[in-house]
Amino acid sequence: MDTIWDRIERIARDRHGKPGYMVLQLAGVSSVTVQMLRNGYIPKRPDTRQRIATALGVPVDELFGRD
Question: What is the mean pLDDT of the chain?
Answer without folding.
Answer: 93
